[in-house]
Amino acid sequence: MRKWYFDVVSAEGHASIGYVAHVAWGPMSLHYASILDGSRSSATLFGAVDPDVRDRQLTWACPALHAGAELVARAAPLPEVRVLDVPGEGSIDWSCMLPSADARFDVAGEATAGLGYGEVLTMTVAPWKLPWRELRWGRFVSESVHLVWIDTVDSTWVFENGVRLEGARVSQAEIGAPAGARLRIEPGIVLREGRLGDTVLNLVPEASRIFPGRVLGLYECKWRSLGHHLPSGERGWVIHEVVRWPS
Prior knowledge:
The protein is mainly β and about 250 residues long. It is about 5% helix and about 60% strand. It has one domain.
C-alpha cells in the first residue's frame, strides 16, 4: 500500500485534506482518492491520480472529486523513517517531503489557502497484521516552526524544524521533551470520528467480505486544533489523530 496525505489550514482554521491510496494485497487492488473539507468528506474509486511531486512542490488534480491542490515547500524534507519492520511480513516507511508548505486546496470551485503539509506512507505489511494497539500522529505548522510526530506507544518520532527530539513524549494535549513541553494543543474540533468500516472504507463494495474485522473495526478520531509552540511563542494550526485497533 502507498498512501499520500496532504493538507492546508487557512489562517481562520478551515482545514482541507487530501488522501490518495493504492492498495494491493493478493487479488485485491484499489486506487482510492478522498477529500475531507472541514467536516464534509467525499471519495472515489474511479479516476484517482497520485500527486505529482517534483522540485519541492506537490500538485494534484482529481476531476472525479472536483478537487485539486498545490503545495510549495517552505522547508527541507525530513529523513525517511522505517516505522515498522516485521521479519517475514513487511515494513512501513514514512516519508515527509513537505513538513511545511505554502498551500492551496480547491474543492468544487471554493479555495482554501494557508500553511500546509504533505507526506507519503509505504506499507508492505498487511494492516491487519500490525502489532499495535494505538497510534498517534500529528503535525503543527506556523510561520517559522514545524513539528510532526508518530507515536506507537512502543516507539516515538518527533521532528521539530527537521531535527528529531530524542526522548519526546506525545499526548492529545501536548508534545513534550526531556527539557519540558514544546507544544501545547488546545481541544479543537473533530474533523472525522468512527470505525474505518463506517468512514474511509464505506465506499468499497462488499468491504465486510474483503477486509478482516481488525481493519473494519479500527477506530480513528482526527482533530483540527490550535497549537502553541512554547519556545518561540508562535501559534499555528495542528491536525492530529488517534487510531485504535480492536482487541
